[in-house]
Design a protein that fits this description.
757 residues, 7-stranded antiparallel β-sheet, 6-stranded antiparallel barrel, 9 helices, 44 strands, 21% helix, disordered C terminus, Biotin/lipoyl-binding protein, UPF0194_transport
Length: 757
Amino acid sequence: MGTKGTKSAKKKMTKKKWIIVAAVVAAGVLLAVFLLPQFLFRANMQSEAGITRTASVEKGTIETTVVGSGNLAAGDTLQIKLPSDVTVDTVLVDAGDTVAAGDTLATLNAASLQSAIANAEEELSSLDSKIDEVKDDTESNTITSAVSGRVKQIFAGEGDSTSNIIDENGSLAVVSIDGKMKVTFTPSSTDGLGIGSEVDVTLSDGDTETGTVSTLSAKSCTVTLTDNGPTCGDDVIISLDGTELGTGTLEINAPIAILGGTGTIESVDVSLNESISSGDTLFTLTEAAVSREYETLLTERTEYEEILRILLKYAETNSITAESGGTISEVSITAAGDSSASTSTGSDAQSSSSAARGVSSLSGNTDDFVQLLSASSGDSENITLLTESDAVTELTGVTEIFVNNPAIGNTPQSTIMPGNGYTGTISWEPADLKFEAGTVYAANITLTAAPGYHFSSDATVNVAGAKIENITVSPETSGNVLAFRAVFEATAQDTQQDQQAASAESNAQGDNSAAASGGMPSGSSGSTSYSASNASGSAAASTASSSGSSSSDSEDSLLQTAFTIQTGEANSLTVNVDELDILTIDIGQEATIVLDALPDDSFHGTVTKISNSGTVQSGVTTYPVTITLDDISGSGALTGMNATATISIATSTDVLLIPLDALQEMGNEQFVYIVGDSDEGLGERRIVETGLSDGTNVEIISGLSEGEQVAYIESTSAGDSEQTMMQGMGGGTPPNGGNMGGGTPPNGGNMGGGPMG
């Protein structure tokens, strides 16, 4: 029994050992199966995202750039003008067409050309007569006052240029017109004060004047006193019964600024503090300018000279030809009538158009008969002789009349540009020599149909900027009259009048926003300006004006742009630069341009224009920057080609460079790791100062020496990191307990990313 029991016990023990061994083996296998992917993942992550690199600090060149794209355009454009009263028969080109010098762009109606030439010659003759009448007229050689008052400031002296003095001081002199000076101050106490209270005003020379409180509040008090004696800009003390209330600076209560025409001061005919009357001479000029009417007429004559030159040139061939080769960028005219009929070209279209309108291009005596060709669509050989009374062309629809809108100081337009089949006259109400401020002007215009033309009963007109009233059409069969009235909006209020109104309001409210310091009173202090008057002294308030805008408006109304041609090479590129980069762009910066169509070639360019007007799209503001290419000739580049420009912002040469990945940041510090014998992490941590960066390398200004080695963990691309993460089954922390992404700096510091797992 005992032996059996012992054997049985041994068998049980042996069996138990095998079970334990099997369990241990099974546990080991399970542990290996679980840990192997983690081990492989960690090894892979260390290989993919934690590759340790070293780089040598080397000298080189680094450049910062801004990149933009756009389309090539021609650097120069040519506008071909056409007088507005010439009829276009056919337009032979479209936008985008390439033309050579001398190519015909459009054919013109011969009769309308001859009529326009005659009208231009007539206008020149009329202008010459007017110029002869006023050529000896000059502006007044004296500057007089239009108001009574007291002279409180004089800025001009003998030999001074009136325009220079006005630019520097705002006027030639300043006159007080209400007999008062004023001072505004903050009162130390208002006890015993009220509107109308009398106070003592002590001047800087010790003299005392009696003042009167005109406005009063806890924070501001204005006192007026006589203008006979006290000086503008004087520092004064205000007191009541021996108690000082405050201090301030004297101003003119109601100032009038004296302006004058162009000239040189020969003499100053008044003195400071002198009392003057309206019409008194203040200054005498040595050189009187020619009259403004004379200058206006000369400008108008120059415009008609240019128009006549253009007309005579077009009349040689009854067509418009290209003055130089290039690409048509814009066609601004259309053929008369149905645009589909413009397919006719050459003399056939021209003669057909002339005949259809019943217009003769013959010159000479037309009193008895005018021979006109009446074209028949079915029988081109049928020619009918028509009498003048038989050939009448209806003027229907809307006729556009060009009139320069009234502007202060400009001379009213005295002529109407003749149109195709009519002439015109104009008169103004009120009949001022110059347009005055704050006035509603109306132009009474009469259009007379030329022989062989007739305004239809439903004919109407349009004048830009005016309301048309009282249109009447006379009943005559030929040569009838269309009359109407064009009413314009009131001209702007005169600046001086506005200032005078501001002065009155300022006086009423005690507003002392402008401090008088002996200089020119500002607009807020109520300064009013008067111009030089004529010899009789009847000055009128006016602002300085220029005939330039009137001249430009007149020329635009007489000539229209027919074609715009891009000439020269496609050497201009405009790119849009982000608002974050625009302040780094300067005129003269160099750029490298690459065309999509010519990827193997690069072109040099220079920034020539930077726009200050931004465009907002999807919350992003960009600014146009124009680059001019200087070596595009013969390359095959065409306007419209896509191009990418790389603008060089800054360049550093012979400087220390390291890879940008080697630069670490923590807070406000930038540092690198120096390869050495250190057992901690990558090596010694050293603070550096950086300069330019091009996205790959960075300039080191201080902290490193050439030849030193820096260590860093090279970051992987986003795609590689994503693939690595997909390969790892499960989570886990990157080796050494660092943070993933961006090249984790050992021994602390975050470079983005986050813990795995």
